[in-house]
What we know:
The chain is mainly alpha-helical and 293 residues long. The protein has helices at 2-42, 87-102, 117-127, 147-168, 170-178, 188-191, 217-234, 248-254, 286-289; strands at residues 139-144, 194-201, 203-205, 211-213, 261-269. A three-stranded antiparallel sheet has the order 1-2-5. Strands 3-4 form a two-stranded antiparallel sheet.
Amino acid sequence: MAIFSYLSPVFIAVICILIAVILQNKRNNQKEKKGKEKKKVESRPWVDEDLQDGTEVPADEEGKDEYQDIDEEDIEHIPFTPRRYDEQYMVKRSKEFYEVLNQRRSVRFISSEPVPREVIDNIVRAAGTSPSGAHTEPWTFVVVHDPEVKHKIREIIEEEEEINYRKRMGDKWVNDLKRLRTNWIKEYLDTAPYLILIFKQIYGILSSDRKKTHYYNEISVSIACGILLAAIQYAGLVTVTTTPLNCGPRLRVLLERPTNEKLLMLLPVGYPSKDATVPNLKRKPLDEIMVAI
């Protein structure tokens, strides 16, 4: 009896601990379930979380950040009558277009020779014909011609790129780039007559300060960038695709862009310099990039 009287407090303590653990696990499971439900409700698969620049909506906009997609009137549908070519001419045109684009190279030696502004306007117009999710057109093309602003952009990018090469990118990435002879020095940011910075609008802003959903905004803007590259090549100019790692926030502030815009790509545009060189790269043949079923 003395043993049982001694163990009773111990048993009671153990039972209390077990009850507390069970209750705590139950609470945790309820919180986890609620979190999953909330995450499921807030999930927006068309919003790419990559390339976020760390900026947030200012605190004074809290409470105004709900998405409000206003139903618009039905869009009128009109007859579509595109130009049609006979098969022989269509083959000829498709081959000629391929041959023009097959000459496209990433050129890092760009001349300061002036380029007509109308040409730049037209290639941006061409990029603006890109398809987009629900026709939200979630892109902003910032064209920089001012030498002082171009130099500030270069300073920001080179400062971050040196850190990228020395610390962030890792040995494998840096070694893979060695054969292309690239580094953090970007002289073309000064010499190119134009810089085009492409921003993706992760959401639109309505007149009521509410957000408008921009479906698949990164895919849409990426397609527009592809069309822009083709237009640059077709016009007889050159560029090099630049994705300034960790530069987005500072460049956004420099160019006075709103918080709903995130930098996706930067393209210096101009003529190649007289002493321009490019790596002697080969493209994969058709049978390695296409599967016919």
